[in-house]
Protein 1
Amino acid sequence: MAKKFISFLLTFIIIFGAVFMGESVYAEDTNAIYVSPQGNDGANGSFENPLATIAAAKELAKEKSGEVTVYFRQGTYTVYDTVNFTRDDKDCVTYKAYGGEKVIFTAGVPYSGFESCTVNGVTAFKKDVGKNACFNILFSDTTTLRRTRYPESGYLYIKDVDEKYCINPDLEVDADFHKGYTALIADKNDIPPIKNVNDAVVRVLHFWKDEMLSIKSYDPSTGLLQFTKPSSMTFHKNERYFLENVFETLNEPGEWYLDKAQGILYCIPYEGESAADFTVWGGETESLISIDGVSGIRFENIIFRGNGFNVSEKRDFSQAAYDAPTCVSCRNSSGFGIRNCEFRDIAACAVFMGENVRDSAVDSCIFDNIGAQAVYIRGENLEETDPRVTKNIDVTNNLISGFGRVFYNAVGILIIHANSVNACFNEIHDGYYTAISVGWVWGYSHSITYGNKICNNLIYNIGQGWLSDMGGIYTLGNQKGTVLSGNVIHNVAADPGEGGYGGWGIYLDEGSSYILVENNLTYACGSDGYHLHYGSDNTVRNNIFALNGESQIRVVSNLGRVEGSKNTAAFENNILLSDGKALAFSRLDDKDAYSEKGNIMWDLTGGEDVYSSRNSSNKAMCFETAKRRGWLADSSAADPMFRDAAGFDFEIEDGSPAFENGFKKFDYSQAGTKAGTVIGISAQGGMTPYNAQSSAVEYTAAKEPFHFLLVLFYRIADFFTGLFKK
């Protein structure tokens, strides 16, 4: 009995000490390794004699058995060469900040020792960084500095396209999109004389892609602008473009220009900054961490900041910034994890999980000012039984803001050839393209992407008029068991210019099939709340699609493009709220290709004056016409009784007729990061209301030809029908 009591007492003391003494107990842990900026890689890695680099800690971990924790003391750790974890390295090692200390991993090369000068009539700092300097991104101690741009605001527009600069003029497949050109014709009055024109980079925005093209030559007499590689997509007249790294527009605080020919870096300081104390960092190393073949590698409470990217000279087809370089990558591994980390001022993709990655997670992290994707998952399209399938990955409770800042067509969370991925409880905003994209097979071919859960995400202010063909959530191909639920999406805006289209809330693209879309709130998107290109056997129920600019639900499909049960989608118990006569349902090309029941429609200003269309809004049908002709056989026009829809408050009052139709309330406030959690180092989760930063969009009003006469005819017909019934 005494032995049991003594054993209990010792256990209590150990637990009590661990709880109240915090991580200081790990100083005695033989499986703990310590690293400090003041350390020495020749030391033993103890608390008193820490190492200096993560590379040295990785090597020392090999000498230990069991799970190992590497603690980093406060400070900045510069990674000059990628730290590669391979099969020879130790499994099950956690790399984390010690206690509450601030730890930063960076690849930025510091530049100081500037001298003052005058550039374009303003004070500038300059430094000789050498002609071999090739960084394309520059950081201060707080943020990314702005690369110079011409024009300083707005865009230039392609004047013409010469077919002799097309590399494959006879291309038949996707000819409208992927011919590829090595030149464009500019208006010769648009581009003034530019110092070191070959240092400038041209950015062309078209459809769902942006180009990044180095200049080979420019002829100011003809406007011929030639590039060092072909474009990935076809150039068209009037497409927008602009130039970056232009000396002549260097004039605003926070801007920089690299004269590569002379090896001189110029920066415009903010008021109060002095050349003697001025330090900036040029990111050259693209990848900080690469994991391949070793499992159980985890990072916690680390700030990753300031890597680089190179302008590729190979022709690319990088839809969704498919091939952007990566800060932290993982392949052929399981148990990979990133928790409570922060990724700030990242030049391209922040976190990549590739082929044969399983049972891994990115949880409670902050991603801010990211050049491409925040989280990118890309496996291979293997058979279901293949053990190398990428699967069982959680991307949860993350705050993603300012993605696609360098590669404009990048996606916040991109999921390709992977199944059983949970992308849930994330807040994603302020990007130029799609927030969450799932799938990479066009049409009905085999796809290993299935069974994914895209739930309770708060998505807003994306697109911002830069590109086209995007959605808050985007899917592609067969995806049995994939669920989109509990998401709140608003203010998705596509390029409004010539040829621009597609700022959609939920976008099921080519072949999207067997997907459940349920309990989502999508509103104030420039185009449609829900858009289905074509697909089979989708279920869309108990959603609210409200105040979207063109229509609330659009179905671009017919029986000729539907497989399976010959039903492209079943629309059940949804609420559709328009305003200014924007369409409710649109593009109902084939009423045999979809089913609908229990849906409620209403116009905020027009009441029952609700419209649908078969092909275009110019041939719209009012609700009564659509009912009589069988296009909307089992839906009704009634006020859903939102508390204040005009103010973007979509709480439904008691007594709403939607409940009689079977609509069930869901809690919009659950979308976004989780309340009561810590995101990154210290941010609090659940702080953004579901309707924060909402703004109204322009509505495209629908018109029914001879509307007044049709309504009059219906009334007369109803009158006489009533008489005969009596």
Protein 2
Amino acid sequence: MIIRAIKLRLKTAAGEFGFKFEFGRGLTVIRGSNSSGKSTLFNCLIYGLGMEELIGGKGEKVLNYAVKDYFVHGETRIQVDMSEVLLELENADGRIVTLRRAINDDARSSKLVEIFEGARLTGDAALGSPRPTYLFDSGSAQKEEGFFLFLEQFLGYQLPQVPTTNGGMAKLYLQTIFAALAVEQKRGWTDYIANAPFFGIRDTRIRVTEFLLGLSVFERQAERAKLDAESLGIDSDWRKAYEKLRLATTANGVVIEGLSATATSTFDASSVQLVKSDGKTQTSLAYYVSALREEHATLGAKAEAYKEASGAEALQELESVSAELQRLSVLHERVTTNLTLQNASLAELRQLHAEATEDVERNKTALKLRVLGAQLDLELATDHCPTCHQAVESTLLAGIVSGPQMDLETNIKYLDSQRLMLQSQINGVLEEIRNSEIAAGDVAARLAATRDYHNSLRGDLSNGVVESRAVVRRQIQIELELSNLKVLTSQFDTLITVFEGVASRLGANQASRRALPKETYSKTDLAHIRYFENFFRSNASSFGYESAEVEDIRISLDTLTPVLSDIELRQIIKTKGQQTNLTADSSASDFVRLIWGYLLALYQASSMPDVEGHHPGILLMDEPGQHSMRAMSQHALLQLLSAQTGLQSIVAASFDEMESVFLEATAGLKFQLIQWEGKVIRPLN
């Protein structure tokens, strides 16, 4: 992308004021003294692109009062009635558009960006009808009416989905990418990629670097995210089917055996059985159904013979039913008591598990502090008192428990194993409770049916009826239960088919996961990172970086930032023997040199012939000569920027407000110069 020109238009009672500048396709130097409006020009450039979040906010409030409220021209204070910024852009396909965005306007919001086709600032294209787009509100990066989606498409991007801090996925928004392309003066030189807005993206700096270098990690992340989403659906489908079957079996006093409550790819339909339990013994559902049908037939024969039945036989039947009623009453009491004890045991185990978890966290925190202390050479972290140098126990129980004690690491491992054991026990008790609830329900149902049969028998004996109401009622109960079990069996067969389908999907999901590369970066990605590393070292050396040996610097594969001895380079590194420590007396100018080298290396590596990088070929820098940077270092930066044939770089600098510094920093370089006398805001011709 090329920024061709910018125009600030201020409408006042004294006429139109502002500025208009055109930029070169290579290096453009904006030279201005302090308080002349150099940063105003730079910030208007950022604002026109809709990227003012990099400056520290949203909307016109990030801009200087001179472009929205009032400015001083000569000795006169002039009120701004209306203001807007226009920006002319060109993409890699040669398409030119002009953007217009209001700053102070009663009719147009600062969230509105109007897009005009053609060169309105450098050419004579008519303004025509604009395409309105909006900023910042929901959908501005997804909807066709959103400006950020327009800019994404204008750049030829298809931004990837990246992991978020809450476990989901989100687009790698353009504003985060521009944090590596545009560096403002106040906070931009505090990190390799500073001021990236927070969108909940995990490791934003790493994701931006990976994108600009064209690493293939996003395809794998997208595939992994797809598999994760698929696995959530698989787990949900399994749990829904399991819960549906569990509710159906519980209502009929039936227990499921051989079926996991969670999805498994090794599901075997033949191992799943439905069994009937009375709290003591279990029989298969098929055998139980057979027994019910046999009982129904027996009752039918008994009904036929009821007329010839003697009183003694009826009394014998009543005694038998009374004995069964008593047995079921005792059994129901036992099952209910057992269920109560199991619930109490579950509560106790959960309390122990919570205490073990708390103990683990406390010990881990103590160990973390100890490790951090060891890194800072604190004597206490090496089990010695820093005052009296006596040995200190590595335990939280010193002075409380006598005898041998476990150190922190051993204690953490022990507590972790205890926690896992308790969780296993909790899972076992939960399964026992589910079975006990089914058994209790079954016994309660049988107890009610037997009591009903018993009462009917007593009524038969006292009334001397010809046809036994007890037999008929029991037959009806059996017929109803057989009907319910038939429905359950049909539902079971249907759900078994569902389980088989879910298990097959899970197996395919797991196979796809195994096929994913185990390493974060592919061989091609590693080659791109090596390019990046080599360019960075070369740049740092060219810029006069002196705080460490450049050849020893590496790009960390964990953070994609420069490291020395696994410590991120941010300050001076002083080596004492074999130990490397960060020191407080850091060289701020040396760190700025590292940022120069880092940002430029991103473009250099991205533009290699065998790298399909995504760098848009633009770099904006406001006051890169921070902290009294030497003129020769600034010259090295500008020289490298001007040498990049595919890079448009716009550098705003004051050069210490010295002509000699400017001449030394730009000596022999090809660049376009933008400068002015006095204030940048002046009457527009």
Protein 3
Amino acid sequence: MIGEVSHSESRKPVIQFLVIFVLAVYISQLIRLQIFNHTELEQKSMENSMKAIEETPLRGVFFDRNMKLLVENTPTYTVRLIPAEYRAKSDSLLESIMGFAPGTIRSIIAKNSQYSSFVPLKLKRGVEFEVIGWIEENIDKLKGVNYIIEMQRGYRDSIMASHLYGYTKEINPKLLEADKYYTPGDLIGYNGLEKKYEQMLRGTKGFRYVLVDSRGREVTQDKARMLAAIKGKDAVLGIDADVQRVAEKELSPYVGAAVAIEPSTGEVIALASSPSYDLNEFSYFTPKEYISKLYSDKEKPLFNRASMAAHPPGSTFKILSAIAALESNVINENSTLGCAGGFTFGRFFKCHGHHGAINVVHAIEQSCNSFFYQLIFKVGLDRLADYAHKFRLGRKTGIDISEESAGLIPTEHYYEKIYGPNWPKGIMVSLGIGQGEVNATPLQLAFYCALIANDGKSFVPHVVKGYLDENKKLVPASYEEVNTGVSQKTFDLVKKGMFLVVNGGGTATNIKTSEYEIAGKTGTAQNPHGKDHSWFIAFAPFDHPKIAVAVLVENAGFGATYAAPIARKMMDAYLLKGKTGIKDYKIAKMEVPD
């Protein structure tokens, strides 16, 4: 017994030491936390009640070449939800006020479940002010719900330019994965310039930090930690608002397209496709009924005919045949070919006149089919294709919008693949006058005309001239130079023929004007599915070209009758700016075949 007591007594100091040691550790930790780390812990406590709110930057806007505002940002309310803070019991109340069907909010949260629950989800854009007022008054019942003011696109100057601008819409999951800049609900550019220049236009996001109370209400802001959003860069376009407006108006009764280019720079002055669609419907919420209507429309208003519709260019292609022949020395300015009303190669190919012995200049003026039927055999398909490619025909021009067709310039290899080595040479007859398999877009023909106007030199066609820096000064964009290498003598000859088309005895004298001199070429392309397509290309003024135009009117008829008057009005809008009496006049229709 005595031994046991002494053993117990011997353990007392050890136990006392352990108790004192543990108490000392706790006391030292309390002293450290309360005195030495007080500031750090207070900061962490504050951070637990601080909320980082992402600030979306203003998107860059579009100006025309004369600094008229074309596309702007207009304010709209957006309601958001933070899943980590939101309570499901609020579903029915929130869905009712937002006009959602039951289960909509659960569906939105489920679709975005792969993202952090602290990332705000945008429930609806373009919310009415009355709804925002109700949410503000009842915010304590809607934990995790807030709203922000965002910007949606607005369009000015009575111009739609739908296929040119493109539009913005909510980003999809695939694009979210590709670029960490975006969060669910962000807007991103789709189609046209909005897509091509997304990174320039979108700006840099910012953040503001707010202190919230136990109910999630904002108490104050931590201004020291704020990071301001940086607005996207404003783009200056080569577009002329007046010319674009005229192109859209004049095309509106038809299916077709029109493109105008500045010959010396390659800047696109106008680009219109008809029928078009209303970009305002894509600003924030696009009704399913409107989308269905666009997709079901047989005229395909979403299709950009200016850069995508590839059709036989008809007689506008004769100038290319002439250039290839002159540069290859198979003809010269004095060479003549006979026209007795047509040309026979296996069968009789008709010409619309009896032009007799005719040289290249007057063959262009009179649009003599017989001359060019024969010329194609002298030039050959491969040589013709080579010169076509120099003028960006049969290949994409490289324009800075997201949609473009390459068209087609057939070669001997092309026909060998279809028919074999003994392909029928009679096919070549139609190619000489821009019929058959040869195809080009209005954009390609406008640039082709611009290169002719500027003696074979220009820059890749482009819509954006540059952007404005922080001092509102233009920072020019750079583009590839294009040089066809064609001689000045050849250009002088073909341009003389184009001048006579309008100012001599040619096929477009109905658009002749005393205000300035126009050089052009009509084209009527055969269409196996209906009426012929109407083409016209032109540049003006003749001596110092400032604008080159290509107009296509599908299923209409002669180029002089439908396309040429539209081109004339576009050139008037550009060259006679500020003058009166040029908007409502009528140009006589000219039923002259070419």
